[in-house]
Amino acid sequence: MKTLIKTVKQYNGEEDIGKWLDRAKVIAEVANEDLAKAMPMLLEGKAYDVWVNLDKSRKCDIDEIKSALKEMFQKNDVEVFDELKQKNGTAMKVPRVY
Description:
Layout: H1 2-7, H2 17-31, H3 35-42, H4 45-52, H5 56-59, H6 62-73, H7 77-88
């Protein structure tokens, strides 16, 4: 777990959960470490709260942990579009399809 803890930035719910999970998974595989066991040390804030509230059996299953984190933090298309509008600083127009 040392490699994971040293290499993977703690997740707090603010960045893209999909990218963070992918990176953590790759590092865990390369380091031959158990991502599920390291997860409580890799999470903080609201993300840690998600993990804490999982049933004991779900805390040991990386797929269950990923599912819970994605359910809480993965953005939908509307949220992504709104962020893009705000980032550009101008109103974006949605093309009309006839």
